[in-house]
Amino acid sequence: MLALADAPALASGFDCVAPEFPQKSTSNESVRRVQKKINSWRACYAEQGAVGPATQDAQKLNAEVDAGLQKWIDATRAASGRNSVSAGTLATIERERTDYLRSVQLR
Fold first, then answer.
1. Chain center to CA of 81
2. Confidence class of residue 9 from pLDDT cuts 50, 70 and 90?
3. Beta-carbon neighbour count of residue 89 at 10 Å?
4. ∠ CA 20-31-40, rounded to 5°
5. How crowded is the C-beta side of 97, counted as CA atoms within 13 Å?
6. Which of 40, 45, 25 is nearest to 87 (CA)?
7. Residue 15: helix, strand or coil by DSSP?
8. Most CB within 10 Å of its CB: which of 28, 38, 43, 84?
9. Residue pair 62/54 in contact by the 8 Å Cβ criterion
10. Does residue 46 form part of some domain?
11. Does some domain include residue 13?
12. Would you tell me the crossing angle of helices 87-105 and 28-50 to the nearest 10 degrees?
């Protein structure tokens, strides 16, 4: 598991908890669980951003979450091959990731 799971809420009032990612997912159900964690993280980050600009610590944590997400996507894709993990679902998650990163940069 990534160390992000143990990251405490930041002292600046930022109270989003970074999601834990499995090393990889081998089933569509596992992918959906990760997708739910990511959606929760993004919603919390956006809510925190609605009250003011994100602190540097919050931005750094968001970047670490994104790096963990990309690592998980790469490992899941490499492990799935022709297994049951849907390539379409991973492509959707990557597209959402790109859109999210663009929206965060525009703030």
1. 22
2. very low
3. 15
4. 50
5. 21
6. 25
7. coil
8. 38
9. yes
10. yes
11. no
12. 10
Q: Which tokens hold the place of 42?
A: 């993004």
What's the pTM value of the predicted model, to 2 decimals? 0.79
Q: Are 30 and 86 contacting, i.e. CB atoms less than 8 angstroms apart?
A: no
Q: Assess if residue 65 is contained within a domain.
A: yes
CB-based contact 10:57 (threshold 8 Å): yes
**The pair of three-digit structure tokens given for residue 16, joined into one six-digit string:** 């989003």
Chain CA centroid to CA 1, Å = 14
Pairwise CA distance, residues 74 & 106, whole Å: 26
Lookup: tokens for 87: 């390539």
Domain assignment of residue 76, yes or no: yes
Domain residue limits at 101: 26-105
What's the 3-state SS for 17-63?
A: CCCCCCCCCCCHHHHHHHHHHHHHHHHHHHHHHHCCCCCHHHHHHHH
pLDDT at 48: 82
What total number of domains does the chain contain?
A: 1
